[in-house]
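Check out a protein:
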Amino acid sequence: MKRFSIAVGLTAVGALVISGCAPGGGGDAGDDSGLVEGSSITAAWNQAFYSMNGNTSFGNATANNNINYLVLDGFNYYNNTPELVENTSFGTYELISEDPLTVSYTLNEGVNWSDGTPIDTADMLLHWAALSRALDTPDFDPAEFTDPETGEFTDAFPTDVVYFDSGATPTSGLGLVSETPEVSEDGRTITMTYNEPFVDWELQFATMGAMLPAHVVAKNALGLEDNEEAKQAVLDAIESNDAAALAPMASFWNSGFNFTAMPDDPELVTASGPYMISDFVADEYITLTANPEYAGDNAANIEEITIRFIPDPLAAVQALENGEVDIIQPQATADITTALEGIDGITVSTGLGGTYEHVDLQFDQGRNPENIFSNPQVREAFMKTIPRQEIVDTLIKPIIGDDAILRDSQLFVPGAAGYDEAAADNTSADYAEVDIEGARQLLEESGVTNTEVCILYASNNPRRVNEFALIQQSANEAGFNVTDCGSEDWGGLLGTPGAYDASLFGWQSTSLGVTNSLPTFETGGINNLNFYSNERVDEIIAELNSTFDEETQIELQIEMDRLLWEDFYGVTIYQFPEVTAFSDRVTNIDSSILAPTVFWNAWDWEVTDAGSEE
């Protein structure tokens, strides 16, 4: 039997990467977890995993964070309501003071890494150092040491520089915790004090999928062999601000957890979550196995989860029909929904997701020798050529019908409080329809002689291929020379200097925090991949960071949204249609609008015929 459900509506999502709190976790702990030996599930995803550190500008991708969420435990996570769940089986946190904002984090006794090493304050202190960048070498710019072909740091990266590639800025998040946190004598609690109030403090530290093993970092960075000695080295280096020790630690933290196949060193997959990486074949699949050291509430039911990398959504549907995979969440197209309608023995859910499609323009360090989009007239001209409505009508409406609409805000989701006001206040209406003549005139007035625009996108994603073709055809009519920078490795190239001039991709919502979208637009923010900078926008971001009144938050975001459109930042196009389909042999699949979407409760998945493989 085939079952379909439709869920459309995002009014609960109030911001871009889009507070409520719930106690407790998922299933039972320890030996009562319900783990079925020999049980397995296979899911599919459209991009290959490539980094166990999703905190860096290189590794911050959904394909990585889906996995990291399951292998790295933390203090909280979002369920699919969505509401924030305190993961009290890992540890607890407490707001000690509001003025100054002071928060303590305490790990439970008995929480260990998968190699048996206790998780302690060394891990938490390294996480703070990395995500605050408080100990970084001042004014260092890594741009010239980034490979434009891969997005990774080159071998020429200076070895005496302390640089954690977390994108932290001193005006938001853990960047506001500039003083080294206090560490308890029992090695389980750290207490941090913010320089000023921060509205989303609860989302900043060691959420699930984030904190890496400090002993693995120090052993590799400093050539140590003993785990406890390595942990002490981390504590000593941070507490004494020892740049000679911190520099190699930062370097390894940045790049040491990047791998595209099973690493030779098993310590690189040291885990703390309900699962651990047990097998990884480049461009084919990654396998997660239940972590025997995990003692938390979210203990696995399924012993083994394999995620196959299937970029072609129709191929993913075919794999589901053939019984090769059990769960898919492919990039939705009309062909996908039609194909799923013809398959028996599955459940299909469709609706609007927490991801939105957009085109960003490189304000600096583009591929074009003239750095074409540093000129505002050229940015405006190019935005006038993007066939937003045609893309929606051609590619999205066949999937979800009239619910497919243009998204007219960089910050607000359609239907959310503030969206209508923002759309009326900004200039998005100027780009509702293509204006070739207006674009041609602006381009001629700009004085630009090299009109090449190379667009980065996922070349193995059929919908993006179609979008690129529509944009290319339209922009070329206005005098642009749009060329193809499409790549299967597009995620690692985002933000790489000299790699492209414009990008076409989707931002996926990860939380309900009002500040969550801000690193995309803040000068130097981790998600600021197009080198955008506006002094007033930075001021608004600083105000939002410490604004607790919801009406004032909306007013500030409306102003900021208007400025982004006036700066010709780029265009938003549509909110993603999301399709989840799974076999009747699996249960407890209930996707969330927030990342990691379908994987948010993978520990609760069950196989109805566990033990008998098909």
The first strand starts at residue 3 and ends at 7. The two ends are 18 Å apart (CA to CA).
